[in-house]
Structures are given as C-alpha cells and as structure tokens.
Write a structure and sequence with these properties.
Largest sheet of chain A: 7 strands, parallel
Strand order of the largest sheet of chain A: 1-4-5-6-7-8-9
Number of strands of chain B: 5
Number of helices of chain A: 15
Strand content of chain A: 5-15%
Shape of chain A: globular
CATH class of the largest domain in chain B: Alpha Beta
CATH class of chain A: Alpha Beta
Largest sheet of chain B: 5 strands, parallel
CATH topology of chain A: TIM Barrel
Number of domains of chain A: 1
Oligomer: heterodimer
Radius of gyration of chain B: 17 Å
Number of helices of chain B: 10
Order of helices and strands of chain B: HHHHEHEHEHEHHEH
Radius of gyration of chain A: 19 Å
Strand content of chain B: 5-15%
Order of helices and strands of chain A: HHHHEHEEHEHHHEHHEHEHEHEH
Helix content of chain B: 55-70%
Number of domains of chain B: 2
Structural class of chain B: alpha/beta
Distance between the termini of chain B: 47 Å
CATH architecture of chain A: Alpha-Beta Barrel
CATH architecture of the largest domain in chain B: 3-Layer(aba) Sandwich
Number of strands of chain A: 9
Helix content of chain A: 40-55%
C-alpha cells in the first residue's frame, strides 16, 4: 500500500481548509476502550490520566486515526459544578443527581474555578500528557459542553425545558454563569495543549428546539462564547440534526459541524461546502453488529457523499464509540478509510 | 377557516395555552370528555409525533405539547375518573438510565390520551421487578437514552421470566431509533419511534393479552 505523505496534523489542517489532503482524515472516538488495554474498570481507568493518555496512544497505534482525545466523559462538567457522576461497567459515566434542585438555586450558584477543581485538572493533565507525546504530529482535541446545553446536567432536562420556556430572567442569569465557565474551561484546555475544542451543543439542534428559539438563545450564546475562546472550535450536536440551522451555525464562528446519521450527508456537505468542515456520520449504535464488509460499505458511502473537495472528517455521528462495538469493526473502518479515502477519490 | 384539530396542533406547537384551552372548551359543550380527547388531543399529538419523526418538530415542542394536553385533560377528566380508558395495569419506567425526559414525554402523552398508568421513574432491576409483581403490571413501557441501559432490558426480561411474571414490554428511546433491530434483540414485544406510537402499541398489545 502506498505510504501516506502527510502527518495527521497536516491532513486535518488541509481538510479543514477545504482542500484535499492525501486521504480523508478520520477519528474513532474510542474514549473508554483504553480501559481494556489495562484490564481496568472504566471508573479506575478515568481516575488515572496517565493511563488514559497511554490508552489513547495505543488505540491510535491500532486504528491509525488522526487525532487524540483530551476528553474523558461529558459528566465531568456536571461533576465540576457539584453534580453526581454515576459509573457503570459497560458504558460512559453519566450525570446522576443534578447539582441544582430547581431554578431557585441559580441565584446562589457560583461557577467552579478550573484551577481549583480536581476533576477538571485531571482532564488538563491528560491533555498535557498527550500533547507532550504527540508534539505537532497529531492534534489533541479538547471538549466543552456549551453554556446552553450544560443545564441538562445542572438541572435535569425537564426542569431545564421549563426554565427555558417559562423563566427568561433566571435562564439569562444561568447563561451568564455558564458562559464565563465555558470560556475559562476551553481556554485552559487550549493552554494545556489542545489544538482545537469540540463545542458540544445538542440542545441547539433542531432535534431538540425549533430554529426560532435557537436564534434567540443557543445561537447568540454560541456567538458570544466562541468569540472569547482563543482557538479553533468545531460544533457537535451529539447526533442531533443540523441542516435547518447550518447557515446560522456558520455565523457563530465555528469551523466544523457534526452531521447526524438522521440527515443525508450529501445535503449537509452541500450546505457546508467551503464554510464548515463536516464531521460524521457513521451510526455508532448500529456499528455494534456490523460485519467488516458492512463497515466498508458504510465508510465508502460516507466518503462518496462528503469526501470530494476536502472539508470532511469521517467519524461517528455522536462523538463516542459505544463500549460494545467490536474491535474487528473499528479495524475494518480504519482499513476502509485507508483503502477508499485516498485522494483523488477517482473511484467515485 | 382552520379546523379545531388544526387550531389545536398549531397552538400546541407555539405553546399557546390560552388557545389550547379555548379549542378544548369550545368542543366541550356537545361531546363527552373521552370523545374530545380521542377526536382532538390524540390526533393532534399523533401529528406532532409524526413531525418529530420527520424532523420538522423538535423535542421541546413534543414535551411542552404533551404537558399542555396533560393539564387540559386532567381538568376535564380527573385522574381518578372511572371513564378513563379501561386497560390492563400499565407502568412506565427507565431501567438504570438517568435520562428521564423521554419517559416523561410518553407518560404525558398517554395520560393526555386518557390512559391511566403508573410512573416508576428511574429504577434498578430489583426495584422494577418488585414493582411489577406487586402491582400486577401487564404492560410495561421502558424508555432508554443510553445503549447500556437499553441492553439491560434483555436481562430484565430473563429475570421476569424466571420469576414467572412477564408483562408485555414496549420500548422506546434513542438507541432503538438508531438501531431498528435492537428492540427485538432485547426481547421487547413492541417498539415506539414516537410517544404517539406508544398509544397504538399498547392498544395492540392489550388486544393479545390473555
């Protein structure tokens, strides 16, 4: 097989500049799977940033994907605000009891300071370890939950929807606190060595709220927040749809957008072309029972739809590969990208 | 002029509580509560469910619509009213899943459609089996957001079989939407893509119960 001519950093940078690199860059967000490398529980694995860094390194050696994840679990932000984290043996840690029992608690809420919060410092150590080892060859991605989406974990989803619809003043108060925290947290990750930040904003997706409400809320919040983050940001809707707001998302200052399996990748790429890098959209839930041949077909389909012209990163549509997905499928995906993702894509 | 059903759907999607109540009260003079529910509320929620499935309606609209309808139905058909739909004992739960919005939406939709059911909320395996046995549940609705929680339903089914009390199980939630074979894999009897699908699923299952 022909040797690849670019480093992962060069490949991603070229693709995100809407040009064709040597091949389609890809990322398998195997966030938890490193625990298997050490025979540890997911809980014990995430307690050791040094092992998570080593796990990330080994998984990249196995699959050859183009980025390292300076990320452990989304609930770390709820934990930072005083929320409960529930660990399990077969999946990511979840946010349990929210830190706020109701909207009345917002008045006395104070955002955590990154430097004083052990769970966030653990993530920063992971990023530093990854960056020290990867140098400029492989980018390290950091991650934040958007100020607009974080309240799902701060209050619970139902309480948050009621706050959003019925208590505009308290909602604004919470957004001000969350924005300050999000900016500090993102910039701390960039300072630690993250090359870019994934901005997880599922509540802004038209799957969750209508566009009219997004324009009055999540859109303005993203614009304010992203303008203060001192690095590149790519927006993820965690498998939610994005087409109806794609033109708006461009104006938030983001450089990339996560595409859902629920939407046609051809349409997302056409709408984003030259403006946003499209990331997606393999169905990681279904991936659990793919055969290697099916994995190859899905990879080919995605590359054929979104690969031409660059501006595309092949990944799953949510940002996390489930624990139950077999290694054979992930290896088949990696092989298929190397086989079918080489530019020029003259087989299409 | 818009039909009452169109007016109700539009009012629900724009969270216009005043119009929701007006449409339902204008229909009230000539019809029984259950008729009003079946001719207006159920089809309005079904349309909204289809919109959610197609991507034209968002989850917040589905949730708020169910909530508004639930309030309106409780006013015209109190929870203890014996004219609520007669069904075998039913319950809804989230098994080892900390995401309860889906459960809440289905619960509201079913109550707004005139059904009575127990809401166990978030439970673990032992609690849920105890509840099912104690309450003699014949139809169990399970909502899941996380894949591991969805996969646990298989173990629940085995446990219930071992204990000799197996209700019919209807499942719903994101993992089942993203993997259309998953509901069969976990041993469920039916799957609902939307909250309104739950209505047709439980009506169908009630018909096959011995």
């Amino acid at each position: 097989m022909k040797t690849e001519s670019m480093t992962s950093s060069e490949r991603l940078s070229t693709a995100m500049s809407h040009r064709e690199p040597d091949r389609v860059p890809f990322l398998l967000p195997t966030v938890m799977q490193g625990a298997r490398e050490f025979g540890l529980s997911i809980r014990d694995y995430f307690s050791r940033p040094d092992l998570v860094a080593e796990g990330q390194w080994r998984l990249r050696a196995r699959y050859g994907h183009d980025a390292l994840l300076g990320f452990m679990y989304g609930a770390v932000e709820a934990e930072a605000w005083g929320g409960e984290v529930i660990y399990r043996e077969d999946g990511p840690p979840n946010a349990g009891q929210p830190p706020l029992s109701g909207s009345a608690d917002i008045a006395r809420l104070e955002p955590p300071r990154v430097r004083d919060t052990p769970c966030l410092q653990k993530v920063l150590r992971l990023i530093r370890l990854l960056k020290d080892r990867a140098g400029n060859e492989v980018p390290v991605f950091g991650s934040v939950i958007s100020p607009f989406s974080l309240p799902v974990m701060q209050l619970g989803f139902e309480n948050y929807l009621l706050l959003l619809h019925e208590q505009p003043e308290r909602f604004e108060q919470l957004m001000r606190l969350n924005e300050a925290f999000c900016v500090e947290w993102a910039n701390a990750q960039l300072e630690a060595g993250a090359g870019a930040i994934a901005y997880a904003d599922p509540v802004s997706s038209p799957t969750i709220i209508p566009r009219a409400l997004y324009l009055k809320t999540g859109f303005l919040i993203a614009r304010r927040t992203l303008s203060k983050i001192k690095g590149a940001v790519a927006t993820s809707f965690a498998s939610g749809r994005c087409l109806a707001i794609l033109d708006d998302v461009v104006q938030t200052g983001t450089v990339g957008i996560g595409a859902s399996f629920l939407e046609d990748l051809t349409a997302v790429k056409a709408a984003a072309r030259g403006r946003l890098t499209v990331m997606g959209n393999l169905n990681a839930i279904e991936m659990r029972h793919w055969t290697p041949a099916e994995a190859e077909i899905r990879v080919k389909e995605a590359i054929a739809k979104a690969g031409p012209g660059g501006g595309f990163v092949l990944t799953d549509n949510h940002g996390e590969i489930p624990w139950q997905v077999p290694d054979s499928v992930l290896l088949a995906i990696a092989d298929a990208v190397r086989r079918w993702g080489r530019y020029p894509l003259d087989w299409i | 002029m818009e039909s009452p059903l169109d007016q109700l759907e539009s009012a629900l999607l724009s969270l216009d509580r005043v119009t929701v109540n007006r449409v339902l009260s204008e229909a009230s003079a000539s019809t029984l509560p259950l008729t009003r529910i079946e001719s207006l509320i159920v089809p309005a929620l079904e349309r909204i469910g289809v919109g959610w499935e197609e991507g034209s309606v968002s989850l917040s609209q589905v949730y708020m619509s169910g909530r508004l309808c639930e309030e309106a139905v409780d006013a015209i058909l109190p929870p203890s009213d014996d004219t609520r739909k007669s069904m075998p004992p039913m319950a809804i739960a989230a098994l080892e899943d900390y995401h309860l919005l889906g459960l809440r939406i289905v619960y509201s939709t079913l109550r707004a459609s005139g059904f009575s059911l127990r809401n166990y909320g978030r439970t673990d395996m032992n609690q849920l089996v105890d509840h099912i046995k104690t309450d003699g549940i014949r139809i169990l609705l399970l909502s899941a957001l996380m894949l591991p929680a969805a996969l646990r339903i298989k173990a629940l089914r085995s446990r219930l079989q071992a204990e000799g009390c197996v209700p019919l199980i209807v499942v719903g939630g994101a993992p089942f939407r993203f993997d259309e074979e998953l509901w069969k894999e976990v041993g469920a009897d039916a799957f609902g893509n939307t909250a309104s699908d739950a209505i047709s699923a439980i009506s169908r299952l009630a018909g096959v119960l011995p």
